[in-house]
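Record 1 of the preview.
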Amino acid sequence: MTEKEYFQLLMEETGCKRSEAELALELSNNNFERAITTIGVILKFITTFKMKIIFSKKNIYGLIHIAVNIKTSEIARFSVTFSCNPTIYEINTNIDWFSYEKAIFSARLNSGAMEAYTKETEEKLKTYIQKSLKELIIISPENISSILKTFFQPNDVYIEIEKEELNLSQFKKLPDYNLNQNLISSSDYDLGFVKLDVKVLEDNNGKYVKKIAEGDTVLSIITDERDLTHYIAHLIGGIDGGKICPIPAIVKKVLHKDNNFEIYLTYTTSIVGLAKTKGSIKVKVLEPKHQLWWKKMLPW
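->
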C-alpha cells in the first residue's frame, strides 16, 4: 500500500483530516493499527450536551441529552423525557454522559412521566435540532439553548446545560470510572498521551507557585520545540494568527523539591503540559466563572 493510500484509508476509517492522519501516523511510528487508536484517543470529535429544562408557566420538567459529532454536525445520540414530577430536575448534569442517559430512561418509568408528550415531541425535536446544527458555525451551549427556546416558543423555558467533550475512544466505550484514580505521585507522573514542555504565565499580582493547588486554572504558553508541537498547539487553541498564545489549563499535580517546582497541566484527556519553575514566582490564576443569575434565583 502506498503512502497516499495509507492516508486515504486512515481518513476514511476515522473521519479525520489529512493533517490529523499525518499526526497520528507520526505518533504511532507509521503503524496503521496504532494510528487508528491514536486518532480515537487524541482528537475530540464528540461533544455531549446534558440539559435540564423547566416550563416556567406549566408543571413540566424535562431532561435532554444530545451527543454531536462536531466534525460533521451530526447527532450521534439523542434522548429526552418530560415529566410533571419536579424531582427529575434534581438529577445532576455533572455526571458522565452515559449515566445521564440512563437517568433519562429511568425517569421515563417514574411516576409523573409524560409518556405521550415525550413520544410526540422527541422525533420532532431531534429533527429540528439536527437541521439547526447544520446551519451553525460553532456548536456551543449558548447556541443549543437558543435552538431549544425557539423550538418551544411561545412557552417560556429555563434551560441548564452541561457540556462534555469526548474523544472517539471515550465515546465508543462505557465511561471509565477509575480514570481519576490513575495518579502517580512521583517525578515520573504522567497523565497524558502527549506531554508538552510549557511555562506558566507570570503575574506580579498573581499567586505564588508554592501556593498553587490542584484544580487551579492558570495561563500557560507552549514552549515545546518538537516538529509536531505547532499542530498540537493548534488543536488545543494555543495558536492565534499563526503565533503561540497563552491558553488556560487546569493544574492536575504539583511536585517540588526545595524551591524547584514541577506543575502538571491538563489541556485535554490526552494532552498534558509540564512547567518547571521556582516557588517564589507569581503566576496568573484565573477566577472561576460567576454563577448564572437565574441559577441563584431558582431553588433547584
